[in-house]
Amino acid sequence: MTSRSFVGGTVSRIDGLNKARGVLVYPSDVHMSNMLTCKCVFAPFPHAKINQIEIKDALNVPGVVRVLTASDLPGINLCTYNLDRPVFCNEITRYEGDIVAVVVAESEKSAEEGVQKVKVDFTKLPLLTDPEKAIEPDAPKLHEKGNIFHQVHYENGKPDEIFSRADVVTVNRTYHLQSTDHTFIETEAGIAYPEDGGICVITGGQDAYYHQNQVAQALNLPLEKVRVIESQTGGAFGGKSDVNVQIFIALAAYLTGRPCRMAWSRREHFISGIKRHSGVIHLRMAASKEGKLLALDAKVFLDTGAYAYKGDVVLNILVE
Question: Is the entire prediction scored with pTM above 0.85?
Fold first, then answer.
């Protein structure tokens, strides 16, 4: 077997030894000199109209360098795969994980104090908590195009006719799927710093090229001016496939000219991090008296939350 032949051989994980020794460096471990700390100001209410964001008191906190809002973004104020989530909410919040501002400070203590000083005047809007009720004609619209993001329909044969003459309906139930958090050990974290007229971002994500594109369009920079290093990831399981801290730390570093770090607490992760979909499945199955399965009829409703993320992909996989 040559040194280049891996089929039939034993291949060691490049990071295996350092992981086992506990010395592997993760994004939340990275620190640089002259570094600033960034903390998010989350939505004051799950669904609300923002009337005003007041940052003056936060800027007066000792150690606070800047308070970033939508007006500071050079590029487009939209992110995620379907460009349906604002980077900074400045008009409408759609869940408690929405971010209205980011405080940039010399220390975590100053950043946290600055977050408490940001005041958001808002008007509450109706909540949507049930995916089936959300598609009713009179349901309040979460987005301008409505509440239905994606639909698929598969049919093979004539199931209604089979159900009418089947010997037995073996299943006729409704199942409720709860939302689940990935609960990876390392929460969303990263550091960004200026580099050759652009920005370098180090995070533990799952799609470096996509994250590069998201940062570039938000900062209105060419792709070659944005470098994303997907460092060792302290767990993800799909929960770090979309952007989380990347744009915020990149913007902070771009505007301040200094390295900027953000690491979500577990509470911040639970509030804003991506979750597995909750849903409702109405299922019927018919069989013959010999035990042969004859027909299956399923209606599946997945709650993709306030924004689409990869809800279409998940639904396609589930129903296929």
Answer: yes
